[in-house]
Amino acid sequence: MDATSQRFLMCRPTYFAVDYAINPWMDPTAPVDADLAIRQWEQLRQTYRELGHTVEEITPVPGLPDMVFAANGGTVIDGRAMAVQFRDPQRADEAPAYRAWFEAAGFEMHDPKHVNEGEGDILLAGDLLLAGTGFRTAHASHAQLQEVFGYPVITLQLVDARFYHLDTALTVLDERTVAYLPEAFSPGSRAALRRLFPDAVHATMADAEVLGLNAVSDGRHVVLPAQATALAAQLRDRGYETIGVDLSELRKAGGGPKCCTLRLRQGKAGK
Ligand code: ARG
Protein backbone atom coordinates (compact mmCIF):
# COMPACT_ATOMS: atom_id res chain seq x y z
CA MET A 1 0.00 0.00 0.00
CA ASP A 2 1.36 3.35 -0.99
CA ALA A 3 1.18 6.47 1.12
CA THR A 4 0.44 9.70 -0.73
CA SER A 5 1.96 12.84 0.73
CA GLN A 6 -0.81 15.24 1.70
CA ARG A 7 -1.30 18.95 2.16
CA PHE A 8 -3.56 19.78 5.08
CA LEU A 9 -5.10 22.91 6.53
CA MET A 10 -5.43 23.09 10.32
CA CYS A 11 -6.51 25.74 12.85
CA ARG A 12 -4.91 25.95 16.29
CA PRO A 13 -7.59 25.67 19.03
CA THR A 14 -6.51 28.94 20.65
CA TYR A 15 -10.12 29.96 21.36
CA PHE A 16 -11.54 26.45 21.70
CA ALA A 17 -14.38 26.01 24.20
CA VAL A 18 -17.75 24.31 24.46
CA ASP A 19 -19.98 27.37 24.89
CA TYR A 20 -23.07 26.13 23.05
CA ALA A 21 -24.56 22.78 22.05
CA ILE A 22 -25.23 22.10 18.36
CA ASN A 23 -24.66 18.32 18.50
CA PRO A 24 -25.29 15.66 21.18
CA TRP A 25 -21.60 15.55 22.21
CA MET A 26 -21.55 19.15 23.43
CA ASP A 27 -22.36 19.95 27.05
CA PRO A 28 -21.54 23.57 27.88
CA THR A 29 -21.69 22.76 31.63
CA ALA A 30 -18.94 20.10 31.46
CA PRO A 31 -15.33 21.20 32.04
CA VAL A 32 -12.89 21.43 29.12
CA ASP A 33 -9.13 21.61 29.61
CA ALA A 34 -8.18 24.27 27.04
CA ASP A 35 -4.42 23.81 27.48
CA LEU A 36 -4.71 20.07 27.04
CA ALA A 37 -6.79 20.66 23.90
CA ILE A 38 -3.91 22.66 22.44
CA ARG A 39 -1.31 20.05 23.37
CA GLN A 40 -3.42 17.28 21.85
CA TRP A 41 -3.88 19.28 18.67
CA GLU A 42 -0.11 19.94 18.48
CA GLN A 43 0.44 16.21 18.81
CA LEU A 44 -1.88 15.62 15.84
CA ARG A 45 0.01 18.22 13.79
CA GLN A 46 3.31 16.59 14.79
CA THR A 47 1.98 13.18 13.72
CA TYR A 48 1.23 14.52 10.24
CA ARG A 49 4.64 16.14 9.95
CA GLU A 50 6.36 12.92 10.94
CA LEU A 51 4.40 11.14 8.21
CA GLY A 52 5.82 13.65 5.73
CA HIS A 53 2.64 15.65 5.19
CA THR A 54 2.53 19.42 4.82
CA VAL A 55 0.43 21.30 7.38
CA GLU A 56 -0.77 24.81 6.58
CA GLU A 57 -2.43 26.87 9.28
CA ILE A 58 -5.23 29.40 9.27
CA THR A 59 -5.20 32.07 11.97
CA PRO A 60 -7.86 31.33 14.62
CA VAL A 61 -10.48 34.02 15.21
CA PRO A 62 -11.58 34.97 18.75
CA GLY A 63 -15.19 34.12 19.49
CA LEU A 64 -15.26 31.14 17.10
CA PRO A 65 -14.60 28.17 19.43
CA ASP A 66 -15.34 25.51 16.76
CA MET A 67 -12.98 27.00 14.17
CA VAL A 68 -10.45 24.28 15.09
CA PHE A 69 -12.62 21.93 13.01
CA ALA A 70 -11.00 22.87 9.72
CA ALA A 71 -12.74 20.06 7.82
CA ASN A 72 -15.84 22.23 7.96
CA GLY A 73 -14.06 25.16 6.34
CA GLY A 74 -14.52 24.02 2.76
CA THR A 75 -14.12 21.31 0.14
CA VAL A 76 -10.94 21.54 -1.93
CA ILE A 77 -10.46 19.33 -4.98
CA ASP A 78 -8.37 19.82 -8.13
CA GLY A 79 -7.40 23.36 -7.18
CA ARG A 80 -11.04 24.42 -6.70
CA ALA A 81 -12.44 25.41 -3.35
CA MET A 82 -16.09 25.40 -2.41
CA ALA A 83 -16.72 27.70 0.53
CA VAL A 84 -19.19 26.70 3.22
CA GLN A 85 -22.48 27.79 4.69
CA PHE A 86 -23.12 26.57 8.24
CA ARG A 87 -26.48 25.39 9.54
CA ASP A 88 -25.94 27.04 12.93
CA PRO A 89 -25.49 30.80 13.42
CA GLN A 90 -22.79 30.15 16.07
CA ARG A 91 -20.44 28.95 13.33
CA ALA A 92 -21.51 31.30 10.52
CA ASP A 93 -18.53 33.66 10.80
CA GLU A 94 -16.05 30.84 10.23
CA ALA A 95 -17.16 30.63 6.59
CA PRO A 96 -15.74 33.98 5.39
CA ALA A 97 -12.52 33.40 7.35
CA TYR A 98 -11.87 30.11 5.58
CA ARG A 99 -13.02 31.56 2.26
CA ALA A 100 -10.47 34.37 2.54
CA TRP A 101 -7.74 31.82 3.27
CA PHE A 102 -8.57 29.75 0.16
CA GLU A 103 -8.67 32.86 -1.99
CA ALA A 104 -5.30 34.08 -0.71
CA ALA A 105 -3.87 30.59 -1.30
CA GLY A 106 -4.87 30.84 -4.96
CA PHE A 107 -7.74 28.37 -5.18
CA GLU A 108 -10.54 28.94 -7.70
CA MET A 109 -13.48 29.93 -5.47
CA HIS A 110 -17.07 28.75 -5.57
CA ASP A 111 -19.80 29.81 -3.17
CA PRO A 112 -22.44 27.50 -1.73
CA LYS A 113 -26.11 28.11 -2.45
CA HIS A 114 -27.33 25.93 0.43
CA VAL A 115 -26.10 24.67 3.79
CA ASN A 116 -22.79 22.93 3.12
CA GLU A 117 -20.39 22.03 5.93
CA GLY A 118 -17.43 21.14 3.75
CA GLU A 119 -15.35 18.04 4.19
CA GLY A 120 -17.29 17.22 7.34
CA ASP A 121 -19.99 15.92 4.96
CA ILE A 122 -18.22 15.66 1.59
CA LEU A 123 -15.58 12.96 1.18
CA LEU A 124 -13.77 12.08 -2.04
CA ALA A 125 -13.35 8.31 -2.40
CA GLY A 126 -11.47 7.55 -5.60
CA ASP A 127 -13.62 9.24 -8.26
CA LEU A 128 -16.77 9.38 -6.16
CA LEU A 129 -17.86 12.28 -4.04
CA LEU A 130 -19.61 10.78 -1.02
CA ALA A 131 -21.99 13.40 0.35
CA GLY A 132 -23.80 13.17 3.66
CA THR A 133 -27.10 14.82 4.50
CA GLY A 134 -29.73 14.58 7.21
CA PHE A 135 -28.30 16.84 9.90
CA ARG A 136 -26.07 19.53 8.42
CA THR A 137 -25.28 19.69 4.69
CA ALA A 138 -28.49 20.19 2.68
CA HIS A 139 -29.36 17.63 0.04
CA ALA A 140 -29.71 20.48 -2.47
CA SER A 141 -26.01 21.28 -2.09
CA HIS A 142 -25.05 17.85 -3.46
CA ALA A 143 -26.14 18.80 -6.98
CA GLN A 144 -24.04 21.95 -6.79
CA LEU A 145 -21.01 19.95 -5.69
CA GLN A 146 -21.31 17.73 -8.76
CA GLU A 147 -21.52 20.79 -11.03
CA VAL A 148 -18.51 22.48 -9.43
CA PHE A 149 -16.18 19.50 -9.10
CA GLY A 150 -17.41 17.17 -11.85
CA TYR A 151 -17.26 14.02 -9.75
CA PRO A 152 -20.34 11.81 -9.43
CA VAL A 153 -22.01 12.54 -6.12
CA ILE A 154 -23.42 9.75 -4.00
CA THR A 155 -25.97 11.02 -1.49
CA LEU A 156 -25.83 9.25 1.88
CA GLN A 157 -28.56 9.74 4.44
CA LEU A 158 -27.36 10.00 8.04
CA VAL A 159 -29.86 8.89 10.68
CA ASP A 160 -28.13 8.98 14.10
CA ALA A 161 -27.68 12.47 15.61
CA ARG A 162 -24.41 11.45 17.29
CA PHE A 163 -22.98 10.87 13.82
CA TYR A 164 -24.21 14.15 12.41
CA HIS A 165 -21.42 14.70 9.87
CA LEU A 166 -20.47 12.06 7.32
CA ASP A 167 -16.88 12.09 8.62
CA THR A 168 -18.08 10.79 12.00
CA ALA A 169 -19.72 7.76 10.36
CA LEU A 170 -17.40 6.91 7.46
CA THR A 171 -13.73 7.17 6.70
CA VAL A 172 -12.02 6.89 3.32
CA LEU A 173 -9.02 4.57 3.61
CA ASP A 174 -7.82 4.66 0.01
CA GLU A 175 -9.20 5.03 -3.52
CA ARG A 176 -11.22 1.84 -3.24
CA THR A 177 -11.81 1.21 0.45
CA VAL A 178 -13.86 2.84 3.17
CA ALA A 179 -14.73 2.00 6.76
CA TYR A 180 -18.15 2.91 8.16
CA LEU A 181 -20.76 2.35 10.81
CA PRO A 182 -23.75 0.76 9.00
CA GLU A 183 -26.22 1.84 11.72
CA ALA A 184 -25.42 5.50 11.06
CA PHE A 185 -27.08 5.31 7.61
CA SER A 186 -30.64 4.86 6.35
CA PRO A 187 -31.48 1.40 4.92
CA GLY A 188 -31.20 2.66 1.34
CA SER A 189 -27.87 4.36 1.91
CA ARG A 190 -26.57 1.26 3.65
CA ALA A 191 -27.53 -0.84 0.64
CA ALA A 192 -25.87 1.67 -1.69
CA LEU A 193 -22.67 1.55 0.38
CA ARG A 194 -22.72 -2.25 0.23
CA ARG A 195 -22.94 -2.13 -3.58
CA LEU A 196 -20.21 0.46 -3.95
CA PHE A 197 -17.84 -0.93 -1.33
CA PRO A 198 -18.44 -4.67 -0.88
CA ASP A 199 -15.07 -5.00 0.87
CA ALA A 200 -15.57 -2.13 3.30
CA VAL A 201 -14.53 -2.35 6.91
CA HIS A 202 -17.62 -2.29 9.16
CA ALA A 203 -16.93 -0.48 12.41
CA THR A 204 -18.58 -1.35 15.70
CA MET A 205 -20.78 1.06 17.62
CA ALA A 206 -18.19 1.07 20.43
CA ASP A 207 -15.52 2.38 18.05
CA ALA A 208 -17.87 4.91 16.46
CA GLU A 209 -18.82 6.18 19.93
CA VAL A 210 -15.23 7.28 20.53
CA LEU A 211 -15.31 8.94 17.08
CA GLY A 212 -13.05 6.19 15.75
CA LEU A 213 -14.27 6.76 12.20
CA ASN A 214 -13.14 10.36 12.32
CA ALA A 215 -9.82 9.24 10.91
CA VAL A 216 -7.33 10.48 8.33
CA SER A 217 -5.69 8.06 5.91
CA ASP A 218 -2.92 8.71 3.40
CA GLY A 219 -3.57 5.34 1.77
CA ARG A 220 -1.23 3.50 4.09
CA HIS A 221 -1.14 5.20 7.50
CA VAL A 222 -4.41 5.82 9.31
CA VAL A 223 -4.44 8.42 12.07
CA LEU A 224 -7.41 7.72 14.35
CA PRO A 225 -8.56 8.25 17.94
CA ALA A 226 -6.45 6.08 20.26
CA GLN A 227 -9.60 4.84 22.01
CA ALA A 228 -10.82 3.07 18.84
CA THR A 229 -8.79 -0.06 19.52
CA ALA A 230 -10.96 -2.66 17.77
CA LEU A 231 -11.15 -0.55 14.59
CA ALA A 232 -7.36 -0.11 14.68
CA ALA A 233 -6.97 -3.89 14.87
CA GLN A 234 -9.37 -4.37 11.92
CA LEU A 235 -7.37 -1.87 9.88
CA ARG A 236 -4.05 -3.50 10.72
CA ASP A 237 -5.50 -6.84 9.59
CA ARG A 238 -6.16 -5.15 6.23
CA GLY A 239 -2.54 -4.02 6.01
CA TYR A 240 -2.84 -0.40 7.15
CA GLU A 241 -0.51 1.11 9.72
CA THR A 242 -2.51 2.75 12.48
CA ILE A 243 -1.47 5.70 14.61
CA GLY A 244 -3.65 6.45 17.63
CA VAL A 245 -3.96 10.04 18.84
CA ASP A 246 -5.79 11.26 21.92
CA LEU A 247 -8.11 14.21 21.25
CA SER A 248 -10.26 13.77 24.36
CA GLU A 249 -10.85 17.51 24.83
CA LEU A 250 -11.89 18.21 21.23
CA ARG A 251 -14.22 15.21 21.40
CA LYS A 252 -16.24 17.18 23.95
CA ALA A 253 -17.27 19.37 21.00
CA GLY A 254 -17.99 16.31 18.85
CA GLY A 255 -14.75 16.36 16.88
CA GLY A 256 -11.78 14.07 16.23
CA PRO A 257 -8.67 14.03 14.05
CA LYS A 258 -10.50 14.28 10.73
CA CYS A 259 -12.61 17.22 11.88
CA CYS A 260 -9.38 19.10 12.65
CA THR A 261 -7.98 18.41 9.20
CA LEU A 262 -8.94 19.75 5.78
CA ARG A 263 -7.36 18.13 2.77
CA LEU A 264 -6.05 20.64 0.19
CA ARG A 265 -6.03 18.99 -3.22
CA GLN A 266 -4.12 20.97 -5.81
CA GLY A 267 -4.90 21.21 -9.46
CA LYS A 268 -2.74 19.11 -11.76
CA ALA A 269 -0.42 22.00 -12.58
CA GLY A 270 0.07 22.86 -8.93
CA LYS A 271 1.15 19.37 -7.90
N1 ARG B 1 -18.91 21.38 17.38
C1 ARG B 1 -18.74 21.22 15.97
C2 ARG B 1 -20.09 21.20 15.28
O1 ARG B 1 -21.02 20.67 15.83
C3 ARG B 1 -17.94 20.00 15.66
C4 ARG B 1 -17.60 19.85 14.23
C5 ARG B 1 -16.86 18.57 13.92
N2 ARG B 1 -16.43 18.54 12.57
C6 ARG B 1 -16.55 17.52 11.74
N3 ARG B 1 -15.97 17.59 10.58
N4 ARG B 1 -17.24 16.46 12.05
O2 ARG B 1 -20.27 21.70 14.21
UniProtKB/TrEMBL annotation:
<dbReference type="GO" id="GO:0045429">
    <property type="term" value="P:positive regulation of nitric oxide biosynthetic process"/>
</dbReference>
<feature type="active site" description="Proton donor">
    <location>
        <position position="165"/>
    </location>
</feature>
<keyword id="KW-0378">Hydrolase</keyword>
<feature type="active site" description="Nucleophile">
    <location>
        <position position="259"/>
    </location>
</feature>
<comment type="similarity">
    <text>Belongs to the DDAH family.</text>
</comment>
<dbReference type="Pfam" id="PF19420">
    <property type="entry name" value="DDAH_eukar"/>
</dbReference>
<dbReference type="GO" id="GO:0006525">
    <property type="term" value="P:arginine metabolic process"/>
</dbReference>
<dbReference type="GO" id="GO:0000052">
    <property type="term" value="P:citrulline metabolic process"/>
</dbReference>
<dbReference type="InterPro" id="IPR033199">
    <property type="entry name" value="DDAH-like"/>
</dbReference>
<dbReference type="GO" id="GO:0016597">
    <property type="term" value="F:amino acid binding"/>
</dbReference>
<protein>
    <submittedName>
        <fullName>N-Dimethylarginine dimethylaminohydrolase</fullName>
    </submittedName>
</protein>
<dbReference type="GO" id="GO:0016403">
    <property type="term" value="F:dimethylargininase activity"/>
</dbReference>
